[in-house]
């Protein structure tokens, strides 16, 4: 998994070898942003 923005952009994150830990699916991130967007006016 890689950080795509901000101060730490481009850095890679390691995760435990346990298969129960997985990155958040893109559609889940999109839904969270849709929920939070009205509260983040002017944020970049």
Structure, explained:
The structure is a single chain. The protein has 44 residues and is mainly alpha-helical. The chain is flat, with a radius of gyration of 13 Å. 25% of the residues lie in helices and 0% in strands. It has one helix and no strands. It has one domain.
Order of helices and strands: H
Work out the strand percent: under 5%
Oligomer: single chain
| Uncertain residue ranges | none
Please report the number of helical segments: 1
Give a summary of the structure in a few sentences.
The protein has 44 residues and is mainly alpha-helical.
Q: What are the defining features of this structure?
A:
44 residues; mainly alpha; flat
Secondary structure elements and pairings:
Elements: H1 26-36
């Amino acid at each position: 998994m890689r950080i795509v923005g901000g101060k730490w952009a481009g850095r890679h994150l390691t995760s435990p070898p346990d298969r129960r830990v997985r990155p958040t699916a893109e559609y889940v991130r999109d839904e969270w942003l849709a929920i939070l967007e009205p509260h983040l006016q002017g944020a970049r």
